[in-house]
Amino acid sequence: MAPNSDAATGWRPPLAGPPRLGTIGPVPQSGWLAGALGRFLLFFLLAFALIGTRPFSGTDVDSASSASDGSLNQIVWLGSILLAGPLLLARARMAFAIARNAWPLLLVMAWATATALWSPLPDLTVRRVAVLWLMYGAALGIAVVEIPLWEFHRYAMLITGIVMGADVLGALGIPSHAINNEGQLVGMHGHKNTAGQVAVMAAICWYFFAFRYQWTLNRLLILAASAFFYLLILATGSKTGSALAFLVMGWCTLWAVTVRKGAAVGAICWIGFGLAAAGVTGILMGSGVTATEVGTALFGDLTFTGRLPLWEVIWDQIQQHYWLGYGFGAFWDVNGLDNSFGLARSVGWLGVVGQAHNGYLDLFLQIGLVGLGLALFSLLWCIRLGHRLLQQTPRHPFDIPARAFGYAMILSIALYNLLESSYLRPHHLQAIWLFLILPIMQRELMEALARARHEKAVREAANREPIRRARHQPPPRRAVPAAPERREPHL
């Protein structure tokens, strides 16, 4: 057996429990009931984030009126934290360790809670920020039962496949509900943007799941399904989503190859990607295509589908509460079709969209410059978490695809937040998934770093052992030369 293997060294993860040997090394043992409860909760919340409480009703999960303020939504999150409570109590030490290391995320959530002190609608701010805390508590309860990231990836693959299948069947069977008036696929989600985001998540999830297999029929079929989901992004009319999915999958694939195959192979892939991008740019320029035409093709118009006028209005509103904001969740969707500041009456349709269609501007609007700074810091922490986890030595054959998927989820929400409001939006499907995956990624990174420290200590101890033995051995005895034989002189 290898001298630095887990069985030989007696290594145990520092967080809790007796070890269980398996293909991924020793991990803390959770009871079967706790494991079953955690997996049920994970599957339920992943599905709830994509489906919502009223599928095919014309109201999606991202509608504030049906989500963070709706009674069904409140029942879901209160029920989730009640189920997660026993898990948190049973593994309180591990939960505290994970939460302590997530202080950048908890800090921005605490600031959002504090905005209730100056919010014009403090009860609404408290209710909406409470959803964030319930989401994190439920995610923490799932993480402490040792569900591996590759299993999270498997559940995500199954759920996105079911949802996308239901969207397609809905378009074929009940087109009046699954296809909007413009002929765009909305599926069970009620809005083309939400349908596009679900298709993006499905394409990314299935794409990385395919790399669990060798180049066999299984991988080809899963890649074909991923390509089909990518085409469904276009069917929803989400050009932004298709560009985002391409960038995220390309970037994370190149980075995973660099980590797995080494810097030399990674450099070749990056150079190839750069040459391909330069080639496409050269072809477009040579054919007379202008930047204006490219922008029009991607976004429909150079106002980002009407976003620029909205951003101008929002910026004027931001100036009135620059440092502290209006209060978390206390600006949009707070009075039916209007909001409490009369924005709808002043700017027409722009006031009833329910979000700034830029998550960073929305955070600036709601929690001020201070809160925006904390939110950006927490998002950079998330990106660094995904980056560091992808660099760790895999313990299971499915670790690298799952880690690349987790990294892609973080990058996806960071990019999507430029044109939609998703990060820290308590009823957004990507925000829910991000909250669910972060504690699991944290736990795996903590275990990987603890394992690496232990193996380093074992190697150093093994290197010091010969020196220690040499120091404690008595010096060798000198051989005393025998006295010369005395010979009597001959007479």
In short:
With 491 residues, this protein is mainly alpha-helical.
Characterization of the model:
The protein has helices at residues 6-9, 32-51, 71-90, 92-101, 103-114, 122-143, 149-173, 175-178, 192-209, 217-235, 239-261, 263-286, 291-299, 307-320, 343-347, 359-391, 399-416, 429-472, and strands spanning 19-20, 27-28. With 491 residues, it is mainly alpha-helical. Strands 1-2 form a two-stranded antiparallel ribbon. α16 (359-391) packs antiparallel against α17.
Secondary structure topology:
Blueprint: H1 6-9, E1 19-20, E2 27-28, H2 32-51, H3 71-90, H4 92-101, H5 103-114, H6 122-143, H7 149-173, H8 175-178, H9 192-209, H10 217-235, H11 239-261, H12 263-286, H13 291-299, H14 307-320, H15 343-347, H16 359-391, H17 399-416, H18 429-472
Antiparallel strand pairs: 1-2
Helix pairs in contact: 2-3, 2-6, 2-7, 2-18, 3-6, 5-16, 6-18, 7-9, 7-17, 9-10, 9-11, 9-17, 10-11, 11-12, 11-17, 14-16, 16-17, 16-18, 17-18
